Amino acid sequence: MSEDGNSKAGAGAGGKRAREGGAASREERLAAALRANLQRRKAQGRARAASDDSEADEET
Predict the structure, then answer these.
(1) 44: phi then psi, degrees, rounded to nearest 5
(2) Which of 1, 3, 18, 31 is 20 to 30 Å apart from 37, CA to CA?
(3) What DSSP designation does 60 have?
(4) With a threshold of 0.90, does the pTM exceed it?
(5) Rounded to whole angstroms, how far apart are CA atoms 6 and 47?
(6) Segments forming the whole domain that contains residue 26
(7) CA–CA gap between residue 28 and residue 20 (Å, rounded)
């Protein structure tokens, strides 16, 4: 077979293992992204709440 044929066969066998390991790392990346997003949204909410409190103080 050609060099491409061998590399495809090797990638298929190794690719399956890589995908299994990649799925775990993908899950870890997604979990980290979700945690970061949650922290960012909480910080935005706290900032908005503080902003609303300061505006309410200014109006009275």
Answers:
(1) -65, -40
(2) 18
(3) -
(4) no
(5) 57
(6) 1-60
(7) 13
Please list the alpha-helical segments (H only) found in the chain. Answer: 3-59
| % of the chain at pLDDT higher than 90 | 47
Answer left, alpha or beta for residue 2, where phi above 0 means left and psi between -120 and 50 means alpha: beta
Q: How many structural domains does the chain have? A: 1
Encode pLDDT of 6-36 as tens digits: 545 544 555 565 567 889 999 999 999 999 9
Query: Any residues with CB less than 8 A from the CB of 9 and at least 6 apart, and which?
Result: 1
- For residues 16 and 20, give the distance between their C-alpha atoms in angstroms, rounded to a whole number: 6
